[in-house]
Amino acid sequence: MDQSTYSPTLDRxxxxxxxxxxxxxxxxxxxxxxxxxxxxxxxxxxxxxxxxRLEKKIGRxxxxxxxxxxxxxxxxxxxxxxxxxxTSLVQSLPGIxxxxxxxxxxxxxxxxxxxxxxxxxxVQYVKEVIKNLSTYASELLLSTSYLIYFFIQxxxxxxxxxxYRDRFNRFLLELRPNNTLQWKNEIQQVxxxxxxxxxxxxxxxxxxxxxxxLVLGIDHAIFFGFLSGTLTMIPYVGITIGAxxxxxxxxxxxxxxxxxxxxxxxxxxxQFMEGNFITPKITGSRISINALAAVIALLLAGKIxxxxxxxxxxxxxxxLKILLGYSTSFKPMVVLLGDETPPNxxxxxxxxxE
Length: 354
Hints:
Layout: H1 8-29, H2 31-58, H3 60-91, H4 93-114, H5 119-163, H6 165-175, H7 182-216, H8 221-231, H9 238-253, H10 258-282, H11 291-325, H12 333-337
Helix pairs in contact: 2-3, 2-5, 2-7, 3-5, 4-9, 7-8, 7-10, 7-11, 8-9, 9-10
């Protein structure tokens, strides 16, 4: 290569681009393997303090088993609640179906009279919608079968992570013998604070949504309320998805469209409270990521890992922010990712305003 045209900066940028391309390709190709491992790693960090306390009395293996049993019992109780609510919803489907057809007939007549859209055009549009829904339904069935595989793997990985945690520490120390692993402690604190805080936020948002839907008299208010609360784990997108189903149910089952407006209002109010009061008070600045970084991470992670990626996007950026803070080359990236108010210092070459 001609030394006169060689640029170290461009060379580093090119190498970084190549590495990022390889990493993204690997994440996509190994999605089914890595997703349960990543979730298990996060849950292991949360369960580690409990396992350590029990380990002093009953040993490592039995402490891990007890912690896993407690976690599985919690999941079983939540699953029982979800299944009971779904059973009630399924039992009411025949009545909802009849009201849905009446609504469709009314909409059909209104479109024909006001917008001169023929019945044939409406039927064609409905066919296209059904075709798209069938595609999503097939993907959902595949996802459901994968969920079974997913939930079988996670306890196994958690057990192994907790059991071999000393080996991971030694491995990191061997990489850099003088490393104090301070960044590891920060990551653990961030992950624990984020997951525990997120669980509380989900419960509060679900309870508030349920109360609002119960006041409006919406059927299956508790199920849809906590479904919306759970979907708040997906920033900016989850609340929209969570409000759609009860809004459609209100349109089908209620005589007035104002009930649907009320459902949207309830979710909007809860979202406002969650974003401005609940989450800041509970999670605080454990993961202080600005909105731009969060949205970009959400879109990229969703493209790579789907719904799992959208759930993991915010904690992943928070962890990345900590790691970048310990790098001399990439430390300026922390400014772009963070949500902290920058110090009011004059920029070189600019005169501050009086």
